Model the fold of this input.
Amino acid sequence: MSGDAPRIDVLIEGDEIARRVDALAAAIAADEPGDFLVVVVLKGSFVFAADLIRALERAGASPHVDFITLASYGAGTASSGTVRVAHDLSEEVAGRPVLLVDDILESGRTLVFARDALLARGAARVRSCVLLDKPDRRAVEIEADYVGFRIGNDFVVGYGLDLAHRYRGLSYIGTVSRKR
Ligand code: IMP
Ligand code: MG
Done:
């Protein structure tokens, strides 16, 4: 919009993401032989989830899919720490094995909030799959069961991830830095 667009450098190319998503789906399909419910954490994971659920079908798994929109207060590049449900699931989770799908695991607050909410509603089991993990940024103790890529502390955009709701449509993941 202004002349000060940030500079975006490619971190992970689209074809590398595609290969990794196939591998994640194969691992999940092998671990989940029965029916399960995929809970997609919006908004950031919608692109990843769209590719992952198609890869799951190719790998022989055919989960139910539902969506929950979670938000941390604030719209900058640092999450504020308070997570809330902006739009809830429509499926019942009681008694069902659930796979949570999120874009990126950073402080861990979003994933802890989602996992605990599902367990409180009686989910039989909650596993989690994240495309990206920034392990050095963890503020609460949690690890994902399936991780696409471990990355450093740079802010990243693309493949669903945004900077103030832009750049979600990039087919690669890139790091953002201010032009000077
Ligand atoms: P956490 O609750 O701190 O683990 O943060 C997870 C959420 O923060 C993700 O679902 C993203 O929406 C957002 N987030 C964290 N790091 C980044 C980033 O580098 N780029 C874009 N969004 C991010
Ligand atoms: Mg998110």
The beta strands are 7-12, 37-42, 64-72, 83-87, 97-105, 125-133, 146-150, 156-157, 173-177. The chain has one domain: 14-73+81-152. The longest helix spans residues 14-31.
